[in-house]
Design goal:
- This protein is an alpha/beta fold and 173 residues long.
- 41% of the residues lie in helices and 18% in strands.
- Strands 3-2-1-4-5 form a five-stranded parallel sheet.
- Helix 1 (4-17) crosses helix 4 (69-82).
- It starts with a helix and ends in a 9-residue tail after the last helix.
Length: 173
């Protein structure tokens, strides 16, 4: 349960740092008011690593995608506290954002760290890393762009490789 102060901070943060699909496709130069490489992190959790990357790389733009409201609120609170200008938040489904909002060949990188492995076989269809989604992600990357995925569960790592390997636009390095 969120208190009034947390809700106000969340709404204020979304107004200033949140992106919507209303103005799709997005122009990153306009959104960030500068020309710089843009990196997307899908599923940033509570946002600590994304905040650190934005702080340590002020020459790059970052977009965090997350649907978990407490994580979005925590990230926005830190963005406001630190006054970060190189980070924006997408508070809705990544598939929708990539299909509708992100232009082809526009991203320097995409990061997916420790997505839910959905270990039960009947839930595998819920896994984020699926061949069709990987194709959508690859099309959003610049020619020299990267897709970086990480998991700490070996069976999911194998599954990820099976899903990513068929994509002709990507190569495993």
């Amino acid at each position: 349960r969120c208190g009034v102060r947390q809700n106000l901070s969340y709404l204020y943060g979304l107004c200033h740092y949140g992106l919507t699909d209303q103005f799709a496709p997005w122009c990153f130069e306009t959104i960030f008011d500068r020309q710089a490489d843009t990196i997307v992190e899908i599923g940033f959790g509570m946002g600590q690593s994304l905040i650190e990357m934005a702080q340590n790389n002020p020459d790059k733009n970052y977009i965090g995608m997350e649907v978990h409201r407490p994580g979005i609120g925590q990230l926005l609170s830190e963005v406001l506290r630190l006054g970060l200008q190189n980070l924006r938040v997408v508070p809705f489904d990544a598939m929708l954002a990539f299909k509708k909002c992100i232009p082809a060949g526009s991203l320097a990188g995409i990061q997916i760290y420790f997505p839910d492995p959905w270990p039960k076989k009947r839930h595998h269809k819920r896994r984020l890393i699926q061949t069709a989604f990987v194709e959508v992600l690859a099309q959003a990357l610049k020619p020299e762009g990267y897709l970086h995925c990480a998991t700490d569960w070996a069976p999911y790592a194998e599954f990820m490789l099976e899903q990513i390997t068929p994509c002709q636009l990507l190569k495993n390095t």
